[in-house]
Design a protein that fits this description.
Layout lengths: L8 H24 L4 H21 L24
Amino acid sequence: MNKVAKITLGFWIMKICATTLGETGGDLLSMTLHIGYAVSSAILFSLFLVAVIAQITSKKIQPSSVLDGNPRDKYGWNDNV
């Protein structure tokens, strides 16, 4: 049983979008709004922590099988990989 998800086209699309969004958000805060690197880093890190805490405290795993096309069991794992 493999607990590591396959790297699919959906993974790369999400990775590129997340990287672009992170860099754009950082530039917006630090350069455009002139609040500085440290403050903009703190804001983005706070948003990251909120997302991580929401993910960890979630009672139910809801993986997206839309992008990779693999059906998952109730725990979010696909034993047929």
